[in-house]
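All the exercises in this workshop are built on plain-text protein records. Sequence and backbone structure share a record, each on its own labelled line. The structure tokens are whole numbers drawn from a learned vocabulary of backbone shapes. The record below serves as our worked example for the rest of this section.
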Amino acid sequence: LLDLIPDGEEDVSLEITAKCGKSSQQYKVNIVRTPILSKLEVKDADGNPLSMDKSFSQDEKSYSVKVTAGTSKIIIGAVPLHPENTVTVAGQPVSDGTSEFTVDSSGEAQIIHIEVSNKNGRKSSYDLTLNFAQIIDCTFTNLSEGTVVQLLDAENQTVFRGKAAENDSEMTAKKLIEGKEYKYNITKKGYK
């Protein structure tokens, strides 16, 4: 059936004749194309990726992302599946697939509406909820001389690494996001 549907964003009508013995019956199938996104991503003002609560799927219409309190701007990447479709983020047109969005600094959860539309007037929308988290520090205490501490985020990216200079040392990993998952490794052998 997919081979019968032409490329493009236009709606398609197909007439199908089904034969059963000596008789036949005609069916008309109308295929309505709903504009959708092919990609949705969120980055901080410096271009660092922010993790959404779930991986993007064209059919999933609601996402959330944690941003740190005090965040004033994020970058939303929203690319339509069909290049002739238009995308708006909070009512503002998106050009080249990205939009800078000014964050309300009240610290309250904020919902950003993303809309995809085609020239036939059909639309679909996605919601991105910004949840705010506090910045926290994590202190490792009573470390022996030569002890190496490595702190990793959920994507296994190193966010902190330090080595104790003497016995009973302390090390503090700063600017961690409250509620975000981290894991740590402590060793006397070090990491590559």
